[in-house]
Design goal:
The structure holds two protein chains of two kinds. By secondary structure, chain A is mainly α. Chain A has helices at residues 2-14, 18-40, 43-60, 71-90, 98-103, 116-132, 135-145, 151-158, 162-185. Chain A has two domains: 1-113, RNA polymerase sigma factor, region 2, helix turn helix motif (Rna Polymerase Sigma Factor, Chain: A, Orthogonal Bundle); 115-187, Arc Repressor Mutant, subunit A (Orthogonal Bundle), CATH 1.10.10. Chain A is built from nine helices and no strands. Chain B is α+β, with helices and mostly antiparallel strands. Chain B is built from five helices and eight strands. Chain B has helices at 5-16, 22-33, 37-55, 66-72, 87-128; strands at residues 133-137, 145-151, 155-161, 170-178, 184-189, 196-200, 209-218, 228-234. The chains are: A mainly alpha, B alpha+beta. Chains A and B meet through α2, α3, α4, α5 and α6 of A and α1, α2, α3, α4 and α5 of B.
């Protein structure tokens, strides 16, 4: 159901249908706000960045493949990147990775290759696997996904050897990847 | 790519997060640019895993006025739900609005600045890129004329001068015109004093485009094809 709805919303956004933007907000506004708030930890800033995110979606919807694209994945990535850009600007490294983040918003990377039911199953499995990570793994994942830090920056912030940080990131992602693959295989 | 499978997967996932060190990132991007299908597939999987991690974020509730703020920019009233009219509620709301009018004005100014800043960052990125090319159009000073700055990776900036004042209720819209296919609308933009700037994020490779165009469109209405074409500037 959700995928069909998303395709329809995306198609209507391409036609500059402002009602579709309202539907998009009602469906995903809470998620986008939550992702951004988790990164910036400030309500007023998070709300500003949500507004910027929706403006970016509106301006870039013509690059999105409404028939095959995963709208949710695309817009969550845009929201996360807005938050990371903001945090990087506070850390006085504006623009350093902006191009990279923008490249990652390329809509061709968000193509649906499975059913929505399969995706939901895998998503639940990943959610459960997140709960199984140890505290150190969760900490580095928070810093990579929600703070936009490189492994070197994480090592500096946590005052841990780079090798230890790389090992923690790798092991955390391996657990999550295995859960996603396992859930897909179990269906 | 010359990596073992685990290293390769790690590389894709860290790139998907924008978390690679600069030198690793450049190497990975150069490799991707070579058209490696395996890396492309690995990157898509990594991006999807990231989406699932982000999607598992516990939901927080935004303030009730955020919906209105966001949608106001798109011509939507932004009311969360219909309520029965209530005079006491209306009076209380009016009092609150008066009390906080100054605060809201300041805040809206900050929001506008945030949006404008993001736009300026894009413009700066295009203008400062070493491989940006400039295409001029319309040499006659009396007619619309200006420049298009083309940066193949990021997008284009259209700077137009000599635009006639739009009729009331109409606005300028920029378009990209593919070599094959219908024009694609980009964004509505104002043109005070006949000058306008539009940032064009092309939905297709810039090499596949024939021209950039500007039309007049009814304000706040859906657009699908140019209503009144003002000019079309060839790119090649």
């Amino acid at each position: 159901m959700a995928v069909t709805d998303d395709h329809e919303i995306a198609a209507r956004l391409k036609q500059r249908d402002a009602n579709a933007m309202a539907e998009l907000y009602d469906k995903y506004g809470g998620l986008l706000y939550s992702v951004i708030l988790r990164s910036v930890a400030n309500q007023a800033t998070a709300e500003d960045l949500v507004q910027e995110t929706f403006l970016r979606i509106w301006n870039r919807i013509h690059t999105f493949d409404a028939e095959r694209g995963r709208l949710e994945g695309w817009i969550v990535t845009i929201a996360r990147n807005r938050a990371i850009d903001y945090l990087r600007s506070l850390r006085s490294q504006p623009g350093e990775s902006t191009t990279t983040l923008e490249d990652l918003e390329h809509s061709g990377l968000f193509v649906t290759k499975e059913t929505e039911a399969d995706r939901l199953t895998r998503r639940k499995a990943v959610g459960a696997a997140l709960g199984s990570l140890n505290e150190q793994q969760r900490e580095v994942l928070e810093l990579t996904h929600f703070q936009g830090l490189t492994q070197t920056e994480i090592a500096e912030r946590l005052q841990k050897p780079l090798g230890t940080v790389k090992s923690l990131v790798r092991s955390a992602l391996k657990v999550l990847r295995a859960s996603a693959v396992g859930a897909a295989g179990s269906r | 790519m010359n990596q073992n499978p685990d290293q390769f997967t790690d590389l894709c996932e860290l790139y998907a997060l924008g978390a690679l060190e600069p030198e690793e990132r450049v190497g990975f991007e150069n490799h991707l640019a070579g058209g490696c299908d395996e890396c492309r597939a690995g990157l898509e999987q990594a991006i999807e895993l990231n989406e699932m991690i982000l999607g598992a974020t516990p939901l927080a509730k935004p303030s009730s006025h955020l919906r209105g703020r966001v949608l106001a920019g798109f011509g939507q009233p932004g009311k969360e739900r219909r309520r029965a009219f209530n005079w006491a509620f209306a009076l209380a709301a009016a009092a609150i609005i008066l009390l906080f009018a100054g605060w809201f004005a300041e805040r809206n100014e900050r929001i506008a600045q945030t949006i404008e800043l993001a736009r300026l960052r894009e413009i700066q990125q295009i203008l400062q890129a070493p491989d940006t090319k400039q295409v001029t159009f319309g040499p006659q000073p009396a007619a619309p004329h200006g420049s298009i700055f083309v940066q193949p990776k990021v997008g284009m900036i259209l700077i137009a001068d000599g635009l006639p004042a739009p009729p009331a209720g109409w606005t300028y819209e920029s378009w990209v015109v593919p070599k094959n296919g219908a024009p694609v609308p980009m964004e509505a933009f104002p043109a005070p004093d006949g000058r306008g700037i539009s940032v064009l994020r092309s939905p297709m490779p810039i090499g596949d485009l024939k021209a950039v165009a500007v039309s007049l469109e009814p304000a706040n209405a859906p657009v699908s094809k140019p209503t009144k074409l003002v000019f079309a500037a060839p790119l090649g």
